[in-house]
Amino acid sequence: MPDADLILTSGPLELRATDHGRGGYPAVQWYQGLEPRLQARVIARLDNISKSLQCGRPDQALAVLPDSRAGLFEMRVTPAGGRPPHLRLFVLRRGMTLWAAGAITKQAKRIKPGSYPRACNIPLNSPAMLSARARV
Hints:
Elements: E1 6-10, E2 13-17, H1 26-32, H2 36-54, E3 62-64, E4 73-76, E5 86-94, E6 97-106, H3 127-134
Parallel strand pairs: 2-6
Antiparallel strand pairs: 1-2, 3-4, 4-5, 5-6
């Protein structure tokens, strides 16, 4: 399956999952495990990000994670002030591809830095990041 890592596309923007070098795609499994209404939130957010990037303006849904050694962004699927569950993906942007290194579903509005997934600590030379860079 050549596109087993593909989660979604929106126009020229692709959301793909990294495999962390252990096989399988945790972000794909996270997305497929969401209820349809929550999957619709992810689709809508990706559409908004795609339109913003095509217009050349940054999207507020993508925030740099200051503690990430790999330069990950936090993709906030649930808007500020939205009702739980709060959906977050941790992505590396390469051109018009967002590589999801991890994803979480939280009930609390704020995510404490200590509760970020191991995705935040993925080194730049990990199999996940190397595969993301190689495919660009």
